[in-house]
Amino acid sequence: SWPASWGKRCVPAGPPRLPAPGGGRPSSPPTPSRATLTPTASPTPTRAGLRAQVAIAVGKAARTASRRLGRGAGAALPGHIALGLCPDLLPQLAGQLTQGCLLITGTNGKTTTARLVASALTQAGLAPLANRTGSNLLRGIASALLGRARLSGRHAAGETAIGLFEVDEAVLPQAAAQLRPRAIAFLNLFRDQLDRYGELDYV
Questions:
Q1: Phi, psi for residue 116 in degrees, rounded to 5
Q2: Are 103 and 176 in contact (CB under 8 A)?
Q3: Do 126 and 4 contact (CB within 8 A), yes or no?
Q4: What confidence tens digit (pLDDT) does each residue in 71-117 have?
Q5: pTM > 0.85
């Protein structure tokens, strides 16, 4: 499993022992330095602008109304409304995730893979925030982020927060540009929805 710090130490392989000049005992290479893979810098929580705060409030109200009226789980509608009010809401909210975010895309297996990765992240001490309902367009990701956002625009997630979003192939370019993920997992790609995004080369 992944360590919570994302800082697993690694020791570069040193050079082989070489014969000393004059046929003496082989000289030992210098002790290799220990390198550390450090996590990304924690973003500084910032207060969202007035437009983003209004979008968050309206999106949360839409989620509550949708659930109480039995019109769905609020997996897409809140994000759709919020993005209509504030088109740059995604980078404002995703930028506050301390450990960044990961994207999973492909024709098949996105939800299963996301659940496996979420389990590994949880065991490593991280707190994944995911679009678990499978709503994998931008509005679904926005709805997932809205669920953990305060009305002030600040994210309620802590220091171990990491985004884990499954993304439809058709919106991957836009999602990557707005979310700025630290990694993207590509699964299989089939020509099953050519009417939506043309050839596979588009993805």
A1: -65, -45
A2: yes
A3: yes
A4: 777 789 999 999 999 999 999 999 999 999 999 998 889 999 999 99
A5: no
